[in-house]
Design goal:
Helix content of chain A: 25-40%
Largest sheet of chain A: 8 strands, mixed
Order of helices and strands of chain A: HEEEHEEHHEEEEEHEEHHHEHHEEEHHEH
Radius of gyration of chain A: 27 Å
Oligomer: homodimer
Strand content of chain A: 15-25%
Number of strands of chain A: 17
Shape of chain A: elongated
Strand order of the largest sheet of chain A: 6-11-12-17-16-15-14-13
Chain lengths: 464, 464
């Protein structure tokens, strides 16, 4: 075994803690060449070892053993470098390494698809398994990783219990949405949809119904896992497989629910800003100028809370005042389009807003009916630049009302257990769902959901 | 809105920090009745609010408003209790609450399936959505939640990047194992297996191949997500849906891999012991006597490392010496049965042992061939009481050798991208997989995998 390598992350950490890295004995690094240019007597390799966003500059000269090989190494090659760290306070990077020895750990042939030049996101999507080697995707996927931990820290720090709700299900939370049905070969080798479980099974579209049962045991719970939609929506915001965060809180009404949503969003903003400063600065500079302003504005003040009915009134007034919507027919009872949501959050509130108490006809069966008999205790959180980012509701805890609704839409069969939760210690409770990939889009400024997912799955796309 | 309730968790935390809870003004609690017994002048409710393993005793007398209703409340009902905390240093529980007001938040009818008496695990499995309300399952699912966070803390604390490898895949890591195929309706409404993605897709059995690509960008990565097997293995250790942890480390050989496995297992043991003391004590006393001894033994010394070849020799010697195996035919080249693994770890090593360098014929195509031409750099970690708990290997990083193997088993088509990783900066790398549910079985002493999963999925079982 070789002496243990040091990582670029550790070098930067120790440097920023004030340690004089030039006092170190020679160190060993391992990583991949981002660029290599040699001018005869002196050469420079930009080395990335995957442990941090920044590269390390490797300086070598023509006295280096194997100089001819090293100077011809191509972008993408894996190497180890042994040498002294030298401080370069007058340069952009604070230190570099002067190579005494360079070893090739994994060569890279000239047909490597990621050459120095800039590639489009479309091109890189086609090389999904290689794109984490680029700056943009290294940043996206590190933030994705860090934010996932942040989600767990947020909820478990508040005592929530994480529940792995099932991926395979016989139910379908929304009562709508196309699903993937599971098949296994029967005795003759023919695909059957009932052979394995004895009934039809599909991939879940939401863990909410299942996690509600756990809220009736643990009070505060959340799921965080993949969900699936077999929808052929070819938009920048839809994927067939994505991760959802679904908290559920007992003894809690819609107000408590909104308090939690707001705290959660603000936590996530602060978390990625603090934990991924290099990556976030990159997004702010290169991907979505103005990102920091947008995110800082979220932190500044409490989110507005506005009745759906008031929202409709404001939109109708805007039309009268001459504002042009693509869908100008605004009337109470309609589902708002993205342009309407964005008008409210961007032009009216100029910040995040909860729209609450929607007409019951356009919302799911499990949402709690308000006393007006027309609306349910649902809320959508709308944010500038994105529109809806979270949907939540207080759940219907009254057995008879819920039963009537389920009978009306015909989904009571198979969901008797869900109804039973209202019979045996069922208290008021609320919850919400955040699409993790969309949250990531919002926090990074990445505008296509396919560019936030390691291997995106959409209709007709299953390359890897 | 009511005054905010305090939780039982918070009461215990503040009490154990030395705070005098009897000095508090009256507090509000919300929770569910575990038991309620009334002797006329005085009554006792054992209240659980889901926030901690312990219950709180609620004492009420016949002066209580609505005493008649309260004294008849049944197990399972949701209530709020307002009253003073009273210290009871001479009792088993350190404090109780003297109710000044009890409100019914959600009644519970007499047909509630979880009555006071003890239920079998089989019975409770059939009521999966209710069982987190029992002591055993409250403990299991809290440890599951806490351990999941622990896994993330362990890996991210070491700089690993968490990768959401895809659940829907066109590949199949092991080249074996029955899979669930995905179907969607075609234009005529008939289920089709190619209509959606344009090719056949199935649920993943492992994220390893996909995560290897990310190790070539981030150095140290891991997946942690659901995986699926459409196997009709009706054993206590098999489920159709389970969560896997799959770390992958670049610039690392099998030794490094084993170091990481050992560190990870020891971390997990320490983590649950420290973070869930009440739950772990319950398992040790009620579920698996001797659990603490078993777990403490794991922490004590370095794990043994033993060649597969040596293991075979030891087993053959044991047979000669008269040890009775159900499968007594031991020969080099065979796959060890559970009884053999357990003999090695329980009788020979008397502790955890890594068995390394297995015959290549019985291991997966991606494992690195050793110089002997007969074995691969694979290892299984065997632990007393369980047998194999982790499987890992150094991966084949040599293009030509890997290509030949993939051609031989006919899985090169569709996996060219995986092979390409060896062409473009592919360095030595290693990884392993831990079944999260099995790890949980090991740490809690729960002997059936169905009792570690919130809603277990096995063949013919899809009730919820």
């Amino acid at each position: 075994m070789q002496p243990k390598a040091i990582t670029i992350r550790e070098l930067y950490a120790r440097h920023s803690q004030g340690e004089d890295l030039s006092a170190l004995p020679p160190v060993l690094l391992e990583g991949w060449i981002r660029t290599n240019r040699d001018s005869g007597s002196i050469g420079f390799i930009s080395l990335n070892d995957g442990t941090c966003f920044k590269n390390l500059q490797v300086v070598y000269n023509d006295k280096l053993e194997g100089h001819d090989v090293v100077s011809h190494l191509l972008t993408g090659a894996a190497i180890s470098v042994y040498g002294k760290i030298v401080l370069t306070p007058e340069m952009k990077q604070p230190f570099e390494i002067h190579a005494e020895k360079v070893e090739v750990l994994g060569d890279c042939s000239a047909d490597y698809p990621l050459q120095k030049k800039r590639h489009t996101f479309e091109y890189l999507r086609d090389e999904a398994y290689l794109r984490p080697r680029t700056n943009t995707f290294a940043a996206v996927f590190r933030v994705r990783s860090v934010l996932a931990l942040g989600i767990h820290e947020f909820f478990q720090g508040k005592g929530f219990v994480y529940v792995h709700t099932p991926e395979i299900t016989g139910n379908d939370a929304e009562g709508a949405g196309q699903v993937f049905t599971l098949m296994t070969p029967d005795a003759e080798g023919k695909l059957s949809d009932t052979e394995f479980f004895g009934r039809r099974a599909s991939m879940t579209v939401s863990g909410q119904l299942h996690v509600e049962a756990f809220a009736m045991a643990f009070r505060d719970v959340y799921t965080f896992g993949p969900t699936f939609r077999a929808e052929k929506s070819n938009t920048t915001r839809h994927a067939s497989e994505f991760w959802m965060i679904e908290p559920e809180i007992a003894f809690a009404d819609l107000e408590d629910d909104m308090d939690l949503m707001e705290e959660c969003i603000k936590f996530c903003v602060r978390y990625v800003m603090e934990k991924c400063p290099d990556e976030m600065a990159f997004f702010n500079e290169r991907i979505a100028p103005g990102l920091f302003d947008k995110l800082n504005a979220v932190l500044e003040k409490p989110f507005r809370r506005m009745e759906y009915t008031e929202g409709i009134q404001i939109l109708q007034d805007a039309v009268k005042a001459g504002h042009k919507f693509e869908n100008p027919k605004i009337e109470w009872g309609m589902d708002l389009q993205s342009e309407h949501e964005r008008y409210l959050t961007e032009e009216v509130v100029k910040g995040p807003v909860f729209l609450i108490n929607y007409p019951k006809e356009i919302k799911a069966f499990y949402m709690r009916e308000n006393d007006d008999g027309k609306t349910v205790a649902a809320c959508d959180c709308l944010v500038p630049g994105e529109g809806e980012i979270i949907g939540g509701s207080q759940r219907e805890e009254r057995y008879e009302i819920l039963e009537k609704k389920m009978e009306a839409i015909g989904n009571k069969e198979g969901l008797e257990w869900y109804l039973n939760l209202r019979k045996w210690g069922g208290c008021i409770h609320s919850g919400f769902g955040i699409g993790f990939d969309r949250l990531l889009m919002y926090l990074t400024g990445i505008s296509n959901i396919r560019d936030t997912e390691p291997y995106p799955r959409t209709s007709s796309q299953l390359k890897y």
